[in-house]
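User: Hi! I'm a student and our assignment asks us to look at how structure tokens line up with a sequence. Could you show me two examples?

Assistant: Happy to help. In each example below, the sequence comes first and the structure tokens follow. Example one:
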Amino acid sequence: MSVNAGEWFSEMMEHLREQPSRAPLYLVFTIYLTVWYAITSRWPFGENIYDSDWDVLLVLDACRVDTLREVADEYEFIGDVESKWSVGSQSAEWIANTFTESRKDEINNTTYISGNGFSKGILARGGRPPANNTTPIDLSAWSVVDERELQSHIAVWETNHDETYGSVLPEPMTDYTIEAGRNGESDQIITHYTQPHLPYVGAAFREGREATEREDRGYELLEVGRASRDDVYGDYKETLRWVLDDVEELLENIDAEKVVITSDHGEAFGEWYAYGHPEGFPHPVVRKVPWVETSATDEQTREPDVEVGDETKIDVEEHLRDLGYR
């Protein structure tokens, strides 16, 4: 057990100054998180990905079940879109509850290709949930493995964070996955795409323009009444199409009998007055994730480009800030 009373009190005062009407909610929520993580760090709620059989698992960050169903008919490789309860409602929570000591045998034979900065924060730097809030007391008991237990951990976000769109684009994620698949060094590959997570820049990228404020901030503007749900949701859905187009190419350039398309968590657009994906949030729109099973055959239609053009590594805080963790 550790006590974080000083830091927690400072954050409480900051909320009281900036959003006095919501400060009591923050108080209640952080106490709730104390209890939530005390329980779920020991007995995770949801189904671990290693409970299922797969060769390649594609994680589309923040992908809702209903949204994937809405676009499923546009893609031949998407059949039935089932759903499962995730082990997290936020990426850090999902990573901490996925890569656990009890799964070490499978993890030892896994290549994890990640566009999400929390992968290093949790697996290499010892960070633990909560990631976006401070609890007054930490009663958790996580059993997370070190990244060295993985066959390989490729942190694509460190060297391929696109400054124009404030995200890791689908293309380098796909290229690294093709490279890993053709190398054949791992029994299982997990590719953690950034999309359709905020910023919702799918349309902006396709049109070769800078993102609008609405595309950049998404549900943040919806929450304060500066954008409509239809417009924000439309940006989100277009960003999902953007990453699915690249997934389609991936499935033509890797050999895998069992491929799963899923997510770490969903995305809220006002359900239960929530926006985004609050950690420890039990609502099905965030906690339930899609589960699509398909296969892949390498037709050699794409040569992966895994050369890093700029050796400068982005700071994890800057990367996460661009993804909306302000």
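Example two works the same way, sequence first and then tokens:
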Amino acid sequence: MANNLTETQNITKELSLLLKIISSKLVDHNQFFNIDWDEFINLAFHHRVYPVLYVKLKELDNPAVPPAVMAKLQASYFENGFNMLKLSSDLEKINRSFSDHQIDSILLKGPILASMLYGDISLRTSKDLDILVNPEHLFEAEEVLLSLGYVSNDERITKRWMLRKKHHISYYHPLTQTRIELHWQMSSRVRGISFKLLWKRRITFSLSGNPINYLSQEDLFIYLIIHGARHGWFRLRWLQDIDQMISNEMVDAEKLKLVYLEYGSEYLGGQALLLCSELYSTKVPQQLFFLINDHRSYKLANSSLFFINKKIDISTISDKNILDAHKKYNCILLSVKQKIWFALDSIYPSYKDYLMLPLPQKLHFLYYPLRPLLWFWRRMKREVI
């Protein structure tokens, strides 16, 4: 798949070696020499691909790999396996409780994704469980989580405000330390896809004999792409998932075309395919080439390579140049419809407005005319500080 991704020339020898190993490409023995192994191991953890890396390196059994590197990967591999088992157990408890209360739910990622794509839950990392529920049952689902001991410190003013400004609520269990994201929208980038439609297309997957609802393979493919694109694909783990879905022939191109009519943003799919082809040498079927008909796919892919090469965590950017690069990325990323949505959404009162001037609920309508003044007030306070 020919492309003009100029950022590929900036890939370091450590990242190049990492990619060849985790994508099961033939590795020249000489590539294992003159490697900064501290940087190599840091890349593996930054990109969250250390479980797969450990298994692949163990198979290669190359004496050039320092024993300390293998020891660290092994310890982290087993720790992740334990964590994934714990998440699986907690998932089954939540799924059973939702089912008992007749709450329709669909798991978005988590241990099932690891099992589906890699055949082993210990080969992928997950820090939390993302669960999508029918918006009509959202507050009943909240009550169930609270009854199971989960707590939330997420900002909220009113239910209406929360449904408008957010797409999920985060929960944390003080004893098990399990984190849950309870979604009523798949993503802030995906609005308008009805839960009923996703529910109709859902598949069921079994963990320990208990059926758990999951996204259809086409919905999953698009969801993973939107999630990765939203974060600039700064972690290779997300691209690894797309590579696995394509390599395992899990996506039906004709069904995908129909589902994309509902989502739009095919150019994000093109971005993912270009990155997989370049970094993983993924053999993209010709039937999926319809996703690569937009120049934005190339621009976005090149920007993501910049983030990958710089080992950037999008959620913690402080460098001005990188912030500017991320702003440009987002400008290309958003469709016209999404830009209009976010422009309109900016008019809606924010949680910062509420913190600055707490008003009783019956006076919340005043936040609309006061919003420009509150914004100006916040700006003045920052400049004084």
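Here is something you could point out in your write-up. Residues 67-100 form the longest helix (34 residues).
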